[in-house]
Amino acid sequence: MNSLWSYFPRWMRPPGASTQASPAAERWRATLRAAGAVPYYAKWRRELNRAAHAASDEERRTALLRLPEVELDYFFSHFRQFKGKENGAPLVRESRTVWAAECRVAVIAPWFHVGGGPMGGAARLFLAPEAAELQKFAPEVIAAPVDALEKLAGQGEWRQDPPLFAVVALCGVGTPLLTAAVRESLWRSLGVPVYVQLRGFQGEPLARECEAHNGLHVEPAEVILERRPSGELLLTSLANPRHTVLRLATRLHAWVDMRPCGCGLTTPRLMDLQPVAAQTITYRAPAGASLTALAGAVEEAQTAWEQEAAER
Q1: How do 123-126 and 166-172 pair as beta strands?
Q2: Phi and psi torsions of 177, nearest 5°
Q3: Residue 142 in contact with residue 167, Cβ under 8 Å?
Q4: Domain range for 182
């Protein structure tokens, strides 16, 4: 619950007056500060300062309407315009978990830094989907981009003791999505359910599939999603301070279901998530594996991604 001072303009509050901002509000202000430090938003700083005063989800969405939409082509071809100024401090990459429970997780060729679960589960990185190496580790969960999972499924029936019990398909802007045919192929070869997770450029969770397998639950403290009249999603990540972009056109189409899910959660769900056909480019992931990005970008974008991989 907000304090009384949250209903007063900032200039009327006495020093030290607390408004007990929500985590989403704190992330919102941090994202706007980060945006103000990147070259692309230099001429939009007045609007960014104005938007920082938005106190509710509705006000934040309204504030975004005063800021420009960024096409995916432009983002990839002008990548450096969205990178914050270096402050001389060493870069600390935040570890992202892919499974909440304590278990052994094998993560294949992710594009983000992966850590163990919050309960101390072990996570090991694999650079290629080689079944023999994975089975030696005996994971309980396998998480990987869709193309890596397809290669794994093509290596035959999975045999492991103790048995595997779940697969996580990691999807993102510019990476392949899980189709019904690939999901069926994974079920036949691995014999376990597949859960889709939509992740940002630094692995921040944007939306994830629950056990009901009926859409992807949006993470309200991590992302603000808008929908163009065409159905294309606009992405504003609240958890990627390194490359800050607001209202990014994702080339992903979906509709939003506000009804409660069969799993009991009441968060909005992305339904029927589909890609828009586009020209492809290839960029380098931090682990050194190639990923396919949906964008009509030029050579500058690929160079930027390779430099990012080298820094990491």
Answers
A1: unpaired
A2: -95, 160
A3: yes
A4: 95-201
pLDDT in tens, 166-204: 999 999 998 899 999 999 999 998 899 999 999 998 888
Residue pair 242/146 in contact by the 8 Å Cβ criterion = no
Angstrom distance (rounded) from CA 199 to CA 63: 24
Which helix (H) or strand (E) segment holds residue 78: the answer is none
- Is 176 within a domain? yes
Alpha-carbon distance of 21 to 1, in angstroms, equals 9
Domain count, the chain: 1
d(CA 224, CA 20): 21
Residue 248 covered by a domain: no
In a domain, residue 258? The reply is no
- The pTM (predicted TM-score) of the whole model is 0.79
Closest CA to 203 of 173, 226, 227: 173
Residue 222 placed within a domain: no
Going by their DSSP bridges, the two strands 141-145 and 105-108 should be labelled as parallel
